Amino acid sequence: MNQLLASIAAYAPGLREWLLLTSVIFSIGLYGLLTRRNAVGILLAVELMLNSAALNFVIFNRFCMPARIDGSVMAIFVIAVAAAEVVVGMAIFVALYRYRGTVDVNRMDTMKDPVTSFEGPVAFNKEVLDNINKQYKSHHDH
Amino acid sequence: MTTEIDIQHLGFALRHVWLVPAFPLVSFVLVGLFLRPLSQKLCGIVATLAVFSSWMAACGIACEYYTLCPPGGEHPVLVPWAFEWLRYQPGMTVNVGVIVDPISVLLMLVVTTVSTLVHLYSIGYMKGDTGFGRFFAYLNLFTFSMLGLVAAPNILQMYVFWELVGVSSFLLIGFYYQKPSAVAASKKAFIVTRFADLGFLVGVLTLGYFGYTLFGGAAPAITARTAAHCAMPLQPFDFLYLTSPEFLARFGALAAGSTGITLLTVAMVLVFMGAAGKSAMFPLHIWLPDAMEGPTPVSALIHAATMVVAGVYLVARMFPAFAVSGAALLVVAYVGAFTSLFAAVIGTTQDDIKRVLAFSTLSQLGYMMLALGVATMESPLGYTASMFHLFTHACFKALLFLGAGAVIHAVHSNEIWDMGGLRKKMPITHFTFLIATLAISGFWPLSGFFSKDEILAAALGNGHYGIFAVALFVAGLTAFYMFRIYLVTFWGEHRTDKASHAHEIPAVMWIPLAILAVLSVVAGYVPMAKFVSIGAEHAEHHGINFAIAIPATLAALLGTGTALLLYTGSGSRADAIARSLGGVYTLVKKKFYVDEVYLFVTHRLIFNLVSRPIAWFDRTVVDGGVNVSGWATRASGHLFSWMQTGQVQSYGSWYAAGAMLVLLVLWAALI
Amino acid sequence: MTYLTLAATQGAFKTVTVSERTAQAFADGSWILALVYILAAVGALGALVTVVGLVLIYAERKIAAHFQCRLGPMRVGWHGILQTVADAIKLLLKEDVIPERADKAMHLLAPFLSMMATVMILGVLPYSPILQIVDLNIGVLYVTAISGFGVMGILLGGWSSNNKWSMVGAMRAGAQIISYEISATLALLVVVLFSGSMSLAEIVQSQDAGWWVWRAHGVGLVAFIIFVIAVTAEINRTPFDIPEGESELAAGFHTEYSGLRFSFFFLAEFINMFVVSAMAITLFLGGWMPFHIGTGGAFNGAMDLIPPVLWFFGKTSAVVFLIMWFRWTFPRLRVDQLMYLEWKVLLPIGFVNLFAAAVVVLYNLYPFPIIVP
Amino acid sequence: MIGPAIYTVMFWVVAASTVLFALAVVNTRKLLRAAIALMAALSTTAGFYVMLDAQFLAGVQVLVYVGGIVVLIVFAIMLTRSGELLEDHPTPERRVVGAAISIMFLILSAAAVWVSPFAEYSTGKTPPNDALSIGKALLDPGPGGYVAPFEVISLLLLAAMIGGIVIARKTPPPNQPFTSGGDLPGETDVYTPLSQRDPKRGGPVS
């Protein structure tokens, strides 16, 4: 029994395993950041990345300078910044949705060519609402 | 005998010399920024009181200075107050301060006196004008700049205030900016004086450069001599240093290339170019007659009594350097003499009262210049005479201009032929104008007699017989043209309705006239030689030298007689003479076509031969180059515009990929 | 002589939690004992949930009835005492209907989240000095944090039902809970300030010299009142039952739930009532501490004879009764009144109170000693 | 021996589930499910904090993330109706690019982690990582203290709160699509449906 436990404990995570874990989480967040079409989805991915960064602080603190607690303090700062970011981000998305009827970032390209891609809320919203209805229907039909 | 002076223990006025320019500056800011929208009356009162306070401070300085250094003794240069303004490097610092010596005290008194009276006069003259507050703000700015110029202890400060004076003159000439002629005149004045100041600047830089390189050798002796008189250590730009024999001896020995001319002469001629521009010496005189577009008080203050004498003051300030150069001093003398004659001749034919006075001013400035030009360090009578004439001229010329302003105010015209018969309508104006005319014509016992007398004596005494003859002739011409406008304006019949309905001016305007009239009478009795002198020897105040006084008076009488002959009764005799002179008369009447020559040179020659090729070069080559770079930027932007999808995520992809690339490179570099 | 010192002098008192016993057993290598402890803890929690649920539902009905001069359930068992059991059996046997267009996975997950949040809090409550499953050194923080899962359960349940009333009810509930959580936390912090600890066991022990509700010079009382109001809102009880206001929203976020899943939500609500009452007494009313007057004396001795567990459940029952009492005393608030009460009344008072508490603690303005671990 | 074994097993199990949840966050087409997955991932991260002896941080993590941020995100999803529709799949090119970049990042960071010589210390005894010491560090004005960042973060949160309120106000006033809507004098307080808005100005049709 103890033999088994010992062999299990041999796989105890060290600093590198912990860092690898956060790298994986960060990469997944990066993937989401680059591929998600919905702005809220992008924010979710950003949260993942922030989270893995905060975790890194604590990991380094725990393994590299266990006599201090700076990592925890920094993690608290990261959490606070994440909270602020989400608040502002969500407010922007809600306002954006109200104004343009969508939070699809593929449509947020007024920077590219303001004349052809943005004609004003009404015309735009009709199109978008039709799109939403169509999708809603198709989603519930199958 | 040397007066022992300790800079630490001076009287109140000398310890606070900065008050003199400070009052108008404060008033300028107050009036210009805060009081202007509030009340016209308040603006006028504050501005006038500020200048009056300056006058009192200047009086205090004069009293204390001449108590410290009694008249007749030696008059050292004091710099009782200064602060560090620019520090280029150790040993190369420019201070701002106030210099106190006889000529600066004299100029401070003249400037503040005339300025106070002109301010007072302007309260009446500008009454109801929409730009009332602006006018007084400008006047204050001018007074401040002029006092700063006068007080400058170094040539760089003088240059700065020189330009400030030019700016305020520009602003005041163009005061009626709705009038195209005023705008043109202000531009003309600005451009001409700027052109002259270019020479001045080069001169200043030359002096500064060599002053700095020669500083180590010359300065210790000067410092030892003057340390007790100066608030700050001696610097290369200081007049005390630039006019010291130690420096001039070294600088005068430097030749400019292989031309045979010394560098000192070159520098001094360049400096004189600036002085000639400001004092409107031929051929840079063309701006002054046009400057009469400004309000008449401005003409009285700036273009007769104060600013235009800045050139004379500059030459006087740098006089030892001119004297060492010699050749430069000759230039001063001949330019002055020629301008004096030239302007007097033109003055005899002009019909605009202010223009006649302007040419008269030119002529008198030429007088002052030639007086400086004939002086030497050994017999400095001309120097004293020049300052003396500057002083008396300020009084009677300001009086003349203010009187002319009163007449113009009454008749609403500048043409003397629109006036006539005003002596009964405006008795005070008439009387004061007569005094001024007599004074400028050089009749005993008025002030002009004495100062002119001294100039003639100086010219004769130093052996400049040609100049003496010219000066004598100009004295006669002066009497002629002055009596001409006096007679046409005040005697005879009313020629227009306006003239017949003219009224005497209000008290606020005639009180300055009266004060100036008194000054014009008594100014000649000031023993100027005791107060103002240069060099070790004091110029002898010789009293009335009949060998000079008699021909001068005769010349004046001759001029007066001619004027009486021609301009009393009907004007037919004058017309007849003018007709008989024919082309010569037209030549003079058109001011020798100097303006036209200038126009030809600038418009035809310079414009076609220089400006157009340069413009072509600018538009095709320079602009083309810029356009090419712009086109290249746009084209390259177009090339990469496919990267700009407008979508955050593609930007994010580029960013992340790039960041990783950088990381890899850094890593590779580290390993 | 206080209870703690008495117990300490007699050597009979020692705070030992189940988790500590389990760890000790592991360390000793006695697997069986450790397993027994774990199973006992889990079983105890399950029993607690069941019993508390049954009792509270029965109490609610009876109390409601008696407030309204009715008898309430009388048929099943003595005075209807088995009525709740019968209801539970009925609910368990009912068909579990899931709306066709609901998001099934989320629909199934939601009640479990709600239940989980409740049960996880039950695990850290100190029922008596020797009866506590885990004593976390961040106990207060833990309780506040875990209640967030409850919100998620409600939001998920409302959203996944694909029903507009459910959705509106869920969003109202979410907004209400996270709003009032702020006030509740501010009130908690007052006690944390006074006791100098976030461990629930230590907070209880710090009230040895007097319960915080009166020992803290008024600020404790204000904090207690704020806390009770805020938690009443947090568990969606009348007068704050807007998320499930029957007259407007059918049944709010659990309209589309039936059978076992509905019973989970239902049970979670009642257990929540128990949990917040337990928290209130733990923080402000001395937890399992007996009621003492002064120091020593026969009265205190008599009080000490009552076991701590009884004190705990007795006090909790009192607060539960108080909350049930509210239901028949106050009318339901409108949404705007609800938000007004929180953001413009309770929150400012809470902040001022917290500040006052900080001043009191900082300058030692109260005559009793603080126990700083 | 049992402690380390449990620790090890827990780590790998929780790590695996975290990665799974994270994958769900970025791949689920239903946004609300992604939010729930995020909640799960963040909760398991709280478990990591416990494993790293940072219990207080774990509490804060659950309190702020689950009780605050995820709730806020869910609200936003509900308000923007993002939860009701299936999100479009990203285009294949974007997927490829995103996957390539994130895998590149993973390889890069893993390589960096693997080759870097970290100075690991195990003093055996770690200082109390509880609320008391963290609070002391946060409010310590001396060297090594964090009082200035703490105050800055407080200000940031306040600014974010005010900014969020201002941005998310209900009615955009005429001519100003995104500003303070409604409460300023002269602005309309009536919510205008999208269909009735002036297309040019963003505000109500006048």
Overview of this structure, please?
The complex is a heterotetramer of chains A (142), B (671), C (373) and D (206). Chain A is an all-alpha fold and 142 residues long. Helices cover 78% and strands 0% of the residues of chain A. In chain A, helix 2 (15-35) runs antiparallel to helix 3 (39-64) and helix 3 packs antiparallel against helix 4. The longest helix of chain A is centred in the middle third of the chain and has 31 residues, at 70-100. Chain A is elongated, with a radius of gyration of 22 Å. In chain B, 53% of the residues are buried. In chain B, 72% of the residues lie in helices and 3% in strands. Chain B is mainly α and 671 residues long. In chain B, a hairpin with a 2-residue loop joins strand 1 (78-89) and strand 2. A two-stranded antiparallel ribbon of chain B has the order 1-2. Chain B is globular. Chain B has helices spanning 12-15, 19-35, 40-68, 102-125, 132-151, 155-173, 180-213, 215-226, 239-242, 245-252, 263-278, 287-290, 296-305, 310-317, 319-325, 327-347, 353-374, 381-411, 422-425, 427-441, 447-461, 465-490, 497-500, 507-522, 528-531, 546-567, 572-581, 583-589, 594-639, 648-670, and strands at 78-89, 92-100. In chain B, helix 4 runs parallel beside helix 18 (381-411) and helix 16 runs antiparallel to helix 17. Chain C is 68% helix and 0% strand. Chain C is an all-alpha fold. Chain C has one domain (3-363). The longest helix of chain C has 37 residues, at 31-67. Chain C has 15 helices and no strands. Chain C has helices at residues 3-10, 18-28, 31-67, 83-93, 104-122, 139-160, 164-195, 200-205, 212-215, 219-234, 246-249, 259-284, 297-305, 308-327, 335-362. With 206 residues, chain D is an all-alpha fold. Chain D contains six helices and no strands. The longest helix of chain D has 26 residues, at 2-27. The radius of gyration of chain D is 24 Å and the shape is globular. The chains are: A mainly alpha (142), B mainly alpha (671), C mainly alpha (373), D mainly alpha (206). Chains in contact: A-B, A-D, B-D, C-D. Chains A and D meet through helix 1, helix 2, helix 3, helix 4 and helix 6 of A and helix 1, helix 2, helix 3, helix 4 and helix 5 of D.
